[in-house]
Design goal:
- The protein is α/β, with parallel strands linked by helices.
- The protein contains eleven helices and twelve strands.
- Helix content is about 40%, strand content about 15%.
- Helix 3 runs parallel beside helix 4, helix 7 packs across helix 8 and helix 8 runs parallel beside helix 10.
- It is globular.
- It starts with 10 loop residues before the first helix and ends with a helix.
- It is an enzyme of class 4 (lyase).
- Its cofactor is Zn(2+).
- Homooctamer.
Length: about 325
C-alpha cells in the first residue's frame, strides 16, 4: 500500500485505525499524605500537586472519583524520622491511617502503597545505614514489616521502591505468612538513579542526607541490566512491575514488554511533569497535546498502566474527546 495517507484523511478514520488508546482506568494518580490537621500544602516544584493531611485529603479524593480514576499510589510524610525509619511500619503511621480512612469511604478505589524507608529515615536513604553504607539484608525485614502493615490497613497492592536485592521475596514470604497471600506486589523493578526525581523529593521530603542512591538504584546507561532486575523480581514473586522514569526510558519499557508477559506500569515521574508544566506556563507548548502524546507514547512502548501526576487533567481531556 503506497498511499498510507488514505487512512489519515478524517478524524473518524484516524480514530478507527488508531493502534493505542490511553484509557482513564489505566491511569494511577500519586497522593501525598502528611501528618497534621488542616493541611493542603502546594508543592512548589510540582504545580497542581499538594500534600494533604488526612482530614483534607478528601478534597483530592473527590476529584479523583469524579475523574473516574480507579487507582492511587500513596506516599506518606511523617512528623518523626529516625535511623530505622520506624514510621514506615508503625501500625498507626500516616500511610496506615490514611489507607484505613480511604477504604472506609472509597472501598472500591484501588490503593497501592509505596513501600520504602526513605521518607521515614533521618538520613533519607531507602535502607538502614552503617558507616555510610546502605545495608541490604538488614533492611529486608523492615520492608517486609512495612508491607504487611499496609496490607493489614487495607492496601490492595504493595509497591516496594527501595531497590534492595531480594526484597520482593522477603515481602512475598511475609505477606503469605500473615494471611495476605491475595495481595499483589507491584515491584519497582527497573528504577534508575535519575535526575528526574528532584521535585518528588520536595513533595515527599525524601532527599538523601548524604551521598546519593547510585549504589542501589540502577545506572541510567544500563538497559540489559533492567531485564535482569525484572526477571529476578518475577522469580521472587512480583505480580506487576514498574519502570521508572518513563519518557527517557521507553526503550526499557519496550524491552521488558517484549521479553516478559507481566503487566508494566510506567511511572511518568515528577521531573517529567514539572518540565511540561513549566514549559506550558511560559506558553512554549500546548500542555494537553504534549501530555497526551507522552502518555500515548508510553502505551505504545508497552505500558499497561501509567502512574502520572497528569492523571486528573488527562482523564478530563479523554472524556472531552469521547463526547
Amino acid at each position: 500500500m503506497d498511499r498510507t495517507r488514505r487512512l489519515r484523511m478524517t478524524k473518524a478514520m484516524r480514530d478507527m485505525v488508531r493502534e493505542q488508546h490511553v484509557r482513564i482506568d489505566e491511569l494511577i494518580y500519586p497522593l501525598f499524605v502528611i501528618e497534621g490537621k488542616n493541611i493542603c500544602s502546594p508543592v512548589e516544584s510540582m504545580p497542581g500537586i499538594c500534600q494533604y493531611s488526612p482530614d483534607r485529603m478528601w478534597e483530592e479524593l473527590e476529584r479523583i472519583e469524579q475523574a473516574g480514576i480507579r487507582g492511587i499510589l500513596i506516599f506518606g510524610i511523617p512528623d518523626h524520622k529516625d535511623e530505622a525509619g520506624s514510621g514506615a511500619y508503625d501500625e498507626h503511621g500516616i500511610v496506615q491511617k490514611a489507607i484505613r480512612k480511604i477504604k472506609e469511604r472509597y472501598p472500591e478505589l484501588l490503593v497501592i502503597a509505596d513501600v520504602c524507608l526513605c521518607e521515614y529515615t533521618s538520613h533519607g536513604h531507602c535502607g538502614l545505614v552503617k558507616d555510610g553504607v546502605i545495608l541490604n539484608d538488614e533492611t529486608l525485614p523492615l520492608l517486609a514489616k512495612t508491607a504487611v502493615s499496609y496490607a493489614r490497613a487495607g492496601a490492595d497492592i504493595v509497591a516496594p521502591s527501595d531497590m534492595m536485592d531480594l526484597r520482593v521475596a522477603a515481602i512475598r514470604e511475609a505477606l503469605d505468612q500473615n494471611g495476605f497471600s491475595q495481595v499483589p506486589i507491584m515491584a519497582y523493578s527497573a528504577k534508575f538513579a535519575s535526575a528526574y526525581y528532584g521535585p518528588f523529593r520536595d513533595a515527599a521530603h525524601s532527599a538523601p542526607g548524604f551521598g546519593d542512591r547510585k549504589t542501589y538504584q540502577m545506572d541510567p546507561a544500563n538497559g540489559k541490566e533492567a531485564l535482569r532486575e525484572v526477571e529476578e523480581d518475577i522469580l521472587e514473586g512480583a505480580d506487576l512491575i514498574i519502570a521508572k522514569p518513563a519518557l527517557a526510558y521507553m526503550d526499557i519499557i519496550k524491552d521488558i514488554s517484549n521479553h516478559y508477559n507481566i503487566p508494566i506500569a510506567a511511572y511518568n515521574v515528577s521531573g517529567e511533569y514539572a518540565m511540561v508544566k513549566a514549559a506550558a506556563a511560559n506558553g512554549w507548548i500546548d500542555e494537553k497535546k504534549i501530555v497526551m502524546e507522552n502518555l500515548t507514547g508510553l502505551k505504545r512502548a508497552g505500558a499497561k498502566m501509567i502512574i502520572t501526576y497528569h492523571a486528573l487533567d488527562a482523564a478530563r481531556w479523554i472524556r472531552e474527546e469521547e463526547k
